[in-house]
Structures are given as structure tokens and as C-alpha cells.
Predict the 3D structure of the following.
Amino acid sequence: MTGTNGKTTTTRLITAALSPLGFQIASNIYGANMEAGLISALSRAPDARIAVLETDEKYITAMVKATRPKVVTLLNLSRDQMDRAAEIWLLARRWREALADAPDCRVVANADDPLVAWAAGSARQVTWVAAGQRWREDSWCCPNCGAHLQREGDDWSCLECGDRRPPVSWMLYDDEVIDPSGRSTPLQIALPGRANRSNAVVALAVAEAFGVQPSYALREMRLVTSIAGRYTQVSRRGCDIRLLLAKNPAGWLEALDVIAPPPAPVLLAVNAQGPDGRDTSWLWDVDYRRLRGRTILVGGERRLDLAVRLEADDVQFQLVNDIDEAIDAARSPSLEVLANYTAFQQYRTVLGRVQ
Ligand SMILES: [Zn+2]
């Protein structure tokens, strides 16, 4: 399973969805998704009959060759920090080549993302899911021929080469999932936001490939309330804090959809250590104007970079040095925290390794 955003959450939801099978499942649930993490996930569960593996976008082609998976899931593909558009196109082309060479593999792919649809289009068997595409800045061009894509709602098509959004067999409608037979079932998952509901629909499509009916899969998926500290509420000095993780422009856009409405104050935090990407110029790709008029606190090691960005969008804010200063400044019974990778991990440690 791979994609730019939602990998860890979707891996967890797929693992839950497959649990009615009663088999031991190997999985890298904490998001270590390159060689060492994958090997350790498999060696922790040597007798497992199924492995649900989150795999780095650049690593999935090697994994397809090495493991001949029954199902490959492709969520989305957009820039991660400093990737360039040309780089993600090359990545999509490598996915496409690897899947063309894996005739026995079923691909569960997001039809709403043109790059993903193009990459999956070479596969022999594809289950198309309307999993949404909140972030469109990386897909104005047809991946097949480079012409400008026509877009209307979730639909997309290329007038030059005829490439278009494939017909989907799974979709999300508000909080309902519509399965290939046309039956609609309320999702009612505990994880917040449209992006997570889309991830849940993808997980249901994967579960079906393993013979698990949506009602059985959903019963287990609804029990998933947090993913390695994300979405959990934790109380500190009388303030209910909720942590959200977002690593790149597409992730921030999705997270801004998930945060509680005003007046809940929001702490935004950005670091630029190795895993975050050293360059913070990606902050300029996110539109922050919807935060105007709210109580916004800005933290993290690169808070000044974020401050400059917010000023450009006319968003009022206050700088804070740590979570306790943020709680004091928030003067509110609740605080939403949106942080990138290492900033998130630092807060999580201060808050006692919340699960
Ligand atoms: Zn085209």
C-alpha cells in the first residue's frame, strides 16, 4: 500500500478490516515504510498468513517485484516537501511499469487522482475507488500526454489523448460507502475528516478482495480511534489537546479540513529536520486564509518561516515556544495541534507518548 498521504491510517484500517478472517497479520503500523521497517514488520510475525505493509512511494516497485503481492493499493501521489512535478511523474511511470509486470496482482486505486489512475492503468486487474483528491496542484496536466486536463467536480479527462477518469466501483457519499452492488452502508468510523472516510472506503475495497464483507470489516474499522498518537485527545493542565500530523501541502490542506471549527484555538508547528525536509518553502503552497479571525498559535523550530507565510495571508497569530506556552496563550478548554513530522513527535513526547 502506498501514496503520498494517508498511508499509515489506511494500513491500520486495512489491518482492522481483514481481522474478521481470523489470521495473524504482519504490519508496520507505526509507519516505518522502507527496507528496515518492512523487514522488521515481517520478522515480528513470522507465522502471519497476511502482511499489510505501508510502503514508501519510491520503494513500492521493488516490493512488488520482491513479494508478488495479492493486492497493491494506490492512494494518491503529490509533492512531498521538495519533490518536483517531474519527479512525481517519473515515480508514477515506475509504478506503471512495475504493475504491468505483475499480472496476478489486483490493484485497488484512486480513480480521482489522474497520476494514480495512469499508473494503475497498466495493471491487468484494477478495482477503482472514488477516493477523492483534495489537492489538485500537481495534476493539471495529463500524465499520459502532457496536455491540460479538463476537470469538472471529481471528473477529469484529456481532450488530446482521450485518457479519462475510469468508472468507479466504490465511492463515498457523505458518510455512506456505496459498494460495487450499489448498496449503501453508513461508515460511522471514529477517525475524523473526509480524507479518512476516503481511506476507509479504500480499505473496504481491499477487504472485499480478501472476501471480507463491508459490514464485518466496518465493525472492526470503527474501533480504530487513533493512529500512532494522531487524532487522540489528551488532557494537559485542564486543556484537551488533539494532535494532527501533516507532512506536506496536500496533508496540511486535509488537516485544515479536520480541525475543530472556531472558536477552538489552533497551534500550528513546523520543524525542518531531516524527516521533515530541510526546506520550508512548501509552506507557501498551502492556503491559510480560512484561519483568519481564529486564535492561531505558531510553534516549532521553524515558527518564523510559518509566521512570514501567515502574515502574507493576513492571518493573525501569536508565537509560542512550547506546548505549555500554547496552552497559556490559548485560554481555552481545548486546543487543536497541527504539526509536521518531527514537531508532532516532540509534542507527542512531551504529552507522554500518546497512543
Ligand atoms: Zn492526454
About this structure: The chain has a mean pLDDT of 93. The first helix runs from residue 7 to 18. The two ends are 23 Å apart (CA to CA).
